[in-house]
Amino acid sequence: MVKSILRPLTKLAFFFLPLAANAQDYPIQPVAFTRVRLSDNFWEPKLQVNARMTIPYVLKKCRETGRIDNFLMAAGKKKTGKLTEFPFDDTDLYKVIEGASYSLQVNPDAQLSAQLDTLIGIIAGAQEPDGYLYTFRTSHPEHPHEWIGTKRWEKEEDLSHELYNAGHLYESAVAHYQATGKKTLLNIALKNADLLVKDFGYGKVQAYPGHQIVEIGLVKLYRVTGQKKYLDLAKFFLDVRGPGGNSYNQADKKPADQHQARRPSAAIAPASEWISANSAPPTMRMRIMEAWRTGTTATTRPNCAPSWSSSASSQGLPSIRSHRSSLSTLQRNSARSISGGAPSSGANRTRSTGLISSAKRSRVAARKSPSSPTVASAMSSRMGSPSRVTT
Prior knowledge:
Layout: H1 2-21, H2 43-64, H3 67-74, H4 90-106, H5 110-126, H6 135-138, H7 162-180, H8 184-199, H9 214-225, H10 228-239, H11 271-279, H12 282-294, H13 310-314, H14 320-338, H15 346-368
Helix pairs in contact: 2-4, 3-5, 4-5, 4-7, 7-8, 7-9, 9-10, 11-12, 11-14, 14-15
């Protein structure tokens, strides 16, 4: 009898708590993903593919590429090994946990939930006692990455991605809490956010994030806890951005003085350049990314030499001709790599075409093959969807 009375009251509490948490928020609020169900013939099947195929695949790639090892090395649980390539690689693990959390709300899966619990335990082990969480520093590599600086936050306005990583952690933690009701990842995020509150502010570290995302994450923490210090810190990061900074990260002006959507031309690279960057050796990829960040002209970027039309460049956009030129360069380079460096020939072109045909056949076979692994059967009762946590 008591349980039958308390159960609906609990549900009502979860409905009204967001109103209390967001008393100083916008009058129109986003709908929590935990309250949305799709049953159409377009999106719902894609959610099933995401649950059955995409998420397990991405988790597998995080293991294979060393993303998880980064955290194990930072925790001291893996003594040997090499960190991955970029300091922002930590966010790949955060994002897959966030995506998996969204999926769990729609497709309850005990095995996936247990996997997330394990990953969250690994992340917790990499967090320093004061809340700092950044594997590329905590692991004390023999050769520190050139982007991270000699001390915390030193290169935050440039390329360290410390706050960028934190922002993705916060979004992941809120999604996991809302989907499962567990506070394990949320507690990690709050501990890290409290460190930011302590370190950043007027009279303390007055730096803006080189890559915006922590602001969104802090707002989400505010909405789920009702603690205004997180909202205030998000506003601080906006207030200290610009002027006089790099236009690449929109710090050349105050946010309030930016009245049009704009991106530097260097940041809008043809698709072939992006492919070239990701297929180049590590040192070459870093050079390409640095060229994009600093605004180096397109003709100086390795592996491609697009021509920029005057009308397109004035808008910061590559011309169609530049794309075609770059794609032709990419095709020639691809043919050379297939043939071991030799110039493209008819035989090589045939081999390249064969590879494409093989890829097409693989995609067709994948469509025809039965889905695996299967998602656990739906739970008899819907998972809880808490909106606010008391800390």
